[in-house]
């Protein structure tokens, strides 16, 4: 590669940065410590990883734009060129930062990233990849070198900010449980919060909703196909028939959420065995297409009989099935927002969810009672269709304020 070709790539990077809007940004932008030399950002397609990188470059390299280079590895240019070659010439031309998008399209990516980190000690590297990615300690041992972050879809709090409805800071769960009534009153005054909440549930989880005026659900279906047909095969060796079985599994499970189907019957429908079926289920969970709820941490071992299976978020649910159960929608939102905020959520003996091993929740409509969880310490109701709550009865929408 000569300098002229390198400058063309640099010009393309700078153009993307210039055209990137910074009027709205994701919560992770200010949470990342960008001083770390090696940063990994994982997440599903459509959550805004690319925009996050470009916004950071735009704000952090105003005076020295050529020091930062952004590249996406799904570009056909990398079919005949290597990332190592590009990093070398960038470094020799005074480059200090390399931002790599879609790293899962690079063969032996872990070893290559590790070598770049070791061979260019003054080069900061940030890379993004599919949530399907797993860091393999035997392939470069990146876990000791990097700091990892995960980017979920928009919280309801972020949606309110994106829509200029309300500017609300993220809440700690303890603060929400303690002061939800006062917080709700400060947010709902003069705002039709339940109207906005319902709009978010159907079409506000993925940031690109602001760029699409029609066909949002169609775009979600395309993203699902891209994850399973492009991202997954880029990460692991898999044949076409297996991809089709995984897609079929997703649609079957989406129709039955949150009830757990008879797994043996599901495998029979998919014409697969138990081991392969569990692997497919695990992939859908890692890909942020399903959210699997068990009484203990999800592994291949205990996925054989999950307690409940949900779609990852309500937007995905609306794109996969027309049979939308109100109770399922509520529980899907609650589980997604709590886990996305970093809380551990498991299936309890009583109630719907146990959070962080302490807080017990029952999710339902405004007439929901404590009958199922009465006399249990630290138990709460998360209720829909109410703007403000009282005592241990908390509006469901407020659990979207945690990140």
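^ structure tokens above, recovered residues below v
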């Amino acid at each position: 590669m000569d300098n002229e070709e390198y400058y063309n790539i640099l010009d393309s990077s700078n153009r993307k940065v210039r055209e990137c809007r910074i009027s709205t940004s994701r919560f992770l932008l200010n949470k990342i410590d960008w001083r770390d030399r090696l940063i990994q950002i994982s997440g599903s397609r459509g959550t805004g990883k690319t925009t996050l990188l470009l916004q950071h470059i735009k704000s952090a390299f105003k005076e020295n734009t050529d020091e930062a280079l952004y590249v996406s590895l799904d570009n056909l240019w990398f079919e005949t060129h290597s990332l190592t070659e590009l990093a070398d010439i960038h470094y020799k031309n005074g480059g200090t930062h390399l931002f790599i998008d879609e790293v899962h399209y690079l063969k032996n990516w872990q070893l290559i990233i590790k070598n770049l980190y070791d061979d260019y000690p003054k080069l900061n590297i940030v890379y993004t990849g599919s949530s399907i990615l797993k860091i393999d300690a035997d392939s470069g041992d990146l876990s000791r070198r990097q700091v990892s972050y995960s980017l979920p879809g928009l919280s309801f709090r972020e949606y309110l900010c994106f829509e200029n409805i309300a500017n609300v800071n993220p809440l700690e769960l303890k603060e929400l449980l303690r002061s939800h009534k006062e917080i709700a009153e400060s947010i709902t005054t003069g705002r039709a919060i339940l109207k906005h909440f319902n709009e978010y549930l159907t079409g506000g989880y993925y940031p690109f909703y602001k760029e699409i005026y029609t066909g949002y659900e169609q775009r979600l279906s395309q993203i699902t196909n891209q994850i399973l047909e492009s991202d997954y095969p880029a990460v692991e060796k898999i044949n076409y028939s297996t991809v089709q079985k995984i897609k079929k599994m997703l649609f079957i499970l989406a129709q039955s959420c949150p009830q757990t189907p008879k797994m043996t019957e599901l495998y029979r429908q998919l014409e697969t065995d138990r081991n392969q079926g569990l692997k497919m289920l695990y992939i859908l969970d890692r890909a942020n297409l399903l959210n699997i709820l068990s009484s203990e941490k999800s592994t291949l071992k205990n996925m054989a009989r999950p307690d409940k299976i949900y779609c990852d978020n309500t937007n995905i649910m609306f794109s996969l099935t027309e049979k939308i159960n109100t109770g399922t929608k509520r529980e899907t939102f609650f589980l997604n927002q709590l886990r996305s905020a970093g809380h551990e959520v498991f299936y309890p003996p009583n109630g719907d969810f146990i959070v962080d091993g302490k807080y017990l929740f029952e999710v339902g409509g405004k007439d929901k009672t404590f009958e199922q969880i009465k006399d249990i310490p630290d138990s709460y109701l998360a209720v829909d269709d109410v703007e403000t709550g009282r005592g241990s009865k908390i509006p469901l929408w407020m659990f979207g304020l945690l990140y």
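The chain has a mean pLDDT of 93.
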